[in-house]
Amino acid sequence: MGEFITTRPEETLQLGKRVAAKLEAGDVICLSGDLGAGKTLFTQGIAEGLGVSEDVTSPTFTIMQVYEEGRLAIYHFDLYRLDRIDELENIGFDEYIGHAGVAIIEWADKFREYMPQEYLWIEILLGQEPNERIIRVNGVGDRFVMLCEGLK
Hints:
Distance between the termini: 9 Å
Low-confidence stretches: none
Radius of gyration: 14 Å
Helix content: 25-40%
CATH superfamily of the domain at 9-114: P-loop containing nucleotide triphosphate hydrolases
Strand content: 25-35%
């Protein structure tokens, strides 16, 4: 497990880019944390690091957004508005997890039991100062433990 403290939005974006450099097809990133803490900003850093030039926004109302122009496709989920497992099934969640692209799942903690066996879990919390963020990174499974170690 690693912990990072950022004090500016640009630093959170940069950490996302560092994670992107280590990603491979089929990787799953689970994001949790405070409302407004920067989950989408972190995702924007990953997208930028993978070569996505279009605007990456939170798919709160669409539930999922696909970005295919980068080094790896990104399947960006926001599960905030979902309450039941069958809603995940209805959006074809399983069809995108662990396949050709990278799945980034905001509010993954709402359905933790439904996540795959291996993933990178990133918790983003509000810090003491207005722009301070505490970002905790934990790898579940050998590949993601190594990825987590590589970020230190």
